[in-house]
Amino acid sequence: MRAVLLGPPGAGKGTQAIRLVEKYGVPQISTGDIFRANIKEGTELGKKAQEYTNSGQLVPDELVVDLVKDRLMQDDCKNGYLLDGFPRTIFQAEELDKFLAEQGQKLDAVVNFEIGNEILIERLTGRRICKKCGAGCHVKFSPPKVEGVCDKCGGELEQRKDDTRETAESRLAVYEESTAPLIDYYSKTGTLKNFNGDQDRDKLFAEIVSVLGE
Ligand code: AP5
Ligand code: MG
Predict the structure, then answer these.
(1) Which numbered ligand comes closest to the C-alpha of 10?
(2) I need a surface site. Which of 41, 65, 99, 124 has the fewest CB within 10 A?
């Protein structure tokens, strides 16, 4: 299974990726997670990416494309992968197409989450992430049993730096301008599958699986 999860910030890409990884046995490649890990570790890449991710702007293409290509060459991607948050620009999509052609591969599907901005802002500003295990939850939609404490490992929950209202709004604007054109790009290739992102997470998962296949 080689698939792209496409959708605005907060659409539920990461939430569905966790379920899809388990179902299809392929890794989730989240460029956002890769940048956040590098920022935490203080790597050169992290230092370069930080100012963009914190303000909700896209990290420049030249810092993203080779990173993803290298990741896709690793052994665990042999049987497929789920790209979460990549591609995000037409340039990145074209580079991915070139890479796939070189490898004699193709995408099976582009899973596109459709959802309105109001609910996205509510999802982003209410999201909390465990400092220790990285699990996500939501203060209203999937609240932890004890406020501020991760249900899974007991770690401390924190808010992502870019999940403030102001930065969330910038991210939605950046999505409209740079990433939404990919819907048209992929609809021309016949790989685009649209889903209603504003529904129960388990129902959405079942719908995605019914389209991608068992
Ligand atoms: P990234 O980490 O990819 O962030 P994003 O695209 O803004 O997406 P999110 O992770 O915020 O949302 P999601 O769709 O995963 O939603 P989630 O499942 O968590 O990128 C961060 C930054 O890195 C970018 O701004 C950019 O700077 C940089 N970057 C990354 N990739 C790049 C690239 N390719 N090029 C350039 N720069 C790049 O869900 C959100 C919340 O909603 C959660 O709390 C969840 O519990 C809740 N929720 C989920 N589903 C449901 C549901 N069905 N019902 C109710 N609540 C739900
Ligand atoms: Mg995510």
Answers:
(1) 1
(2) 41
Query: pLDDT digits over 15-25, tens only?
Result: 999 999 999 99
Read off the pTM: 0.97
2-26+79-116+167-212 CATH choice from 3.40.50.920, 1.10.10.10, 3.50.50.60, 3.40.50.300 = 3.40.50.300
Locate the ligand 1 atom nearest the alpha carbon of residue 17 and give its number.
18
Identify which ligand lies nearest to the alpha carbon of 204: 1
Residue partners of 13: CB distance under 8 A and separation at least 6: 5, 6, 7, 30, 84, 85, 113
Q: Residue ranges per domain, the chain? A: 2-26+79-116+167-212
Residues of the chain falling short of pLDDT 70? none
